[in-house]
Design brief:
This is Alpha/beta hydrolase fold-3 domain-containing protein. It comes from Malus baccata (Siberian crab apple). It holds the Pfam family Abhydrolase_3. The protein is α/β, with parallel strands linked by helices and 327 residues long. The protein has 10 helices and 10 strands. The chain has a single domain, classed as 3-Layer(aba) Sandwich (Rossmann fold), CATH 3.40.50.1820. The longest helix has 18 residues. It is globular, with a radius of gyration of 19 Å.
């Protein structure tokens, strides 16, 4: 699986899609992973070079279709814009399930660049509100994606979006059929709270993203009248934050030793385990926030190992019966 195949479609949607290149040749349907990039609510992009490299890596290792979601950024678009955009994509994915018959009308406009297929929808204004409406169809995704095996993966603030989308999916229940969120991966989630954890005190001045910078990001993201470090978007441990944790999908949490946000992420996974949700934590030594997705760290052995570890865990929940992943 060397190199890439490119598929680009004109249209108004906001996503970049990736799939292992052999899926189009075998005709098999692959699980669908929605991927949410990081950037502290105010920066980052689903079509950045770093996000592109990461999504290609994950699509190949996990053997899934990856949809890298573009969401609106703060401060121009404050909470709940980014969260709503993530949920809109999940609902839009459900609309694609009935479009397989459209795939026959699809042309073969792919370039021969080998291994991973890329397909794109772009919108210079980033307005997913219009982009993921009922009128937009993607025959390629309908033909090759299996929405009954949907995984949510987010990095940093993208993990907060993945957490929100998962909670809304649980609340929606059968209304989302045939889409089923079978697992989620929270990579160094952008959690915080008014009562500091040990790591928030000890590592407040940690590399790349210190606590003061992140508090500023929350001030730019949350509406002024809603600003609180215990906002449900910020603190996963506040009381009465629905739905009940026992209903949440299996959740893999990735944390870094030198990330001040690590303890709250670990505490959230502990609460999930208390109610019998499969919620392991992978902690990487000598690592910093975004160590597996930041452009200058993507080619490190640790970043590669993290992607491989994610793939091992995810495949437990996306493998078809009789074709289980073994290791």
């Amino acid at each position: 699986m060397e190199g890439l195949n490119l598929m680009a479609n004109a249209g108004a949607g906001v996503y970049r899609g990736y799939s292992p290149g052999n899926s189009t040749r075998t005709g098999r349907k692959l699980p669908v992973m929605l991927q949410f990039h990081g950037g502290g609510w105010v920066s980052g992009s689903n079509d950045s070079v770093a996000n592109d490299i990461f999504c290609r890596r994950i699509a190949k290792l996990c053997d899934v279709v990856v949809l890298a979601v573009g969401y609106r950024l703060a401060p121009e678009n404050r909470y709940p814009a980014a969260f709503e955009d993530g949920l809109k994509v999940l609902n839009w994915l459900g609309k694609q399930a009935n479009l397989a018959e459209c795939s026959k009308s699809m042309g073969s406009g792919r370039g021969a660049l080998g291994g991973v297929t890329e397909f794109k929808k772009t919108d210079s204004h980033r307005h997913i509100v219009d982009s993921f409406g009922a009128s937009m169809v993607e025959p390629w995704l309908a033909a090759h994606g299996d929405p009954t095996r949907c995984v949510l993966l987010g990095a940093s603030c993208g993990a907060n979006i993945a957490d929100y989308v998962a909670r809304k999916a649980v609340e929606a229940g059968k209304l989302l059929d045939p889409v089923k969120v079978v697992a989620r991966v929270l990579m160094y989630p952008f959690f915080i709270g008014s009562v500091p954890t040990r790591s928030e005190i000890k590592l407040a001045n940690s590399y790349f993203y210190d606590k003061a910078m992140c508090i500023l990001a929350w001030k730019l993201f949350l509406p002024e009248e809603e600003y609180s470090l215990d906002h449900p978007a910020a603190n996963p441990l506040i009381p009465d934050r629905g739905p009940p944790l026992k209903l949440m999908p299996p959740t893999l949490t990735v944390v870094a030793e030198h990330d001040w946000m690590r303890d709250r992420a670990i505490a959230y996974s502990e609460e999930l385990r208390k109610v019998n949700v499969d919620a392991p934590v992978l902690e990487y030594k000598d690592a910093v926030h975004e160590f597996a997705t930041l452009d200058i760290l993507l080619k490190t052995p640790q970043a590669q190992a993290c992607a491989e570890d994610i793939a091992i865990w995810v495949k437990k929940y996306i493998s078809l019966r009789g074709h289980e992943f073994s290791y």
